[in-house]
Amino acid sequence: MPIWNPWHGCTKISPGCDHCYVYRMDAVHNKDSSKVEKTGSFNLPLRCTKSGDHKLTGSDVVYTCFSSDFFLKEADEWRRDIWEMIRFRSDLNFFIITKRIDRFRVSLPDDWAEGYENVTISCTVENQKMADYRLPIFLEVPVKHKSIICEPLLEAIDLSHYLTSAIESVIVGGESGTEARECDYDWVLSIRDQCRAAGVPFNFRQTGRHFRKDGKLYTLRRELHHSQAKKAGIDLP
């Protein structure tokens, strides 16, 4: 699973950011997560092996900018170069998650039109307020492949108005970390049922640390978050 982080660092903008995993990891090394900097991997898609082949192969899905937000204001000028690399590597599929879909059009390339075929944008929403703010914008932006991520899921969310044919999938998950807020299985099932009614694929990705089911609150070790979600068997293809 190739991860391409062209820059590192971000600022918190909504409740889903409160216990950001990047901030947690940086704190271990006394690093200031709010300082946005280019990384040594900035031009990763262009790098080649000694034989002249690209290090990232055409079969890869490249998870892009997972230690920041792709549409961060501090990265506006850098993003122009990133879009050029994404356009050049049309053989790769780039997966981008954002909480800043309202900044999508800033530094957009001139040839974007209805979007690049090799780019998936996933808008993340953690509660109803963020869903009602971000998703109407998300549905209007020109992107060929769109998905929604409800992670960390902090409350019950009604997505039914936003599950149009433009949405290719919905991913749901609880919050990890020692300060994690609880995730209720009923919230997960509700979104699954909304996806089923709309014919949208659904994936329950992780339980999170504090997971409530049938009125009982469970505290799960990190290594169980994904396996217990998969064990629930509620994904929709």
How many H/I helices? 5
The residue fraction in helices comes out at 10-25%
Order of helices and strands: EEHEEHEEHEEEHEEEH
Low-confidence stretches: none
CATH architecture label: Alpha-Beta Barrel
The computed structural class is: alpha/beta
Mean pLDDT level: 97
Largest sheet, described in full?
7 strands, parallel
CATH top level is Alpha Beta
Terminal Cα span: 21 Å
Q: How large a portion of the residues is in β-strands, by DSSP E?
A: 15-25%
What global shape is seen?
Answer: globular
InterPro entries: DUF5131 (IPR011101)
Pfam family, one: DUF5131
Protein name: DUF5131 family protein
Describe this structure in words.
- The chain has a single domain (3-232), classed as TIM Barrel (Alpha-Beta Barrel), CATH 3.20.20.
- The strands form 3 sheets. The protein has a 7-stranded parallel sheet with strand order 1-4-5-6-7-8-10. The chain has a 3-stranded mixed sheet with strand order 9-11-12.
- The chain is built from 5 helices and 12 strands.
- Strand 4, helix 2 (76-88) and strand 5 form a beta-alpha-beta unit.
- It starts with a strand and ends in a 5-residue tail after the last helix.
- The longest helix is centred in the C-terminal third of the chain and has 14 residues, at 185-198.
- The chain has 237 residues and is α/β, with parallel strands linked by helices.
- It comes from Geovibrio thiophilus.
- It holds the Pfam family DUF5131.
- InterPro entries: DUF5131.
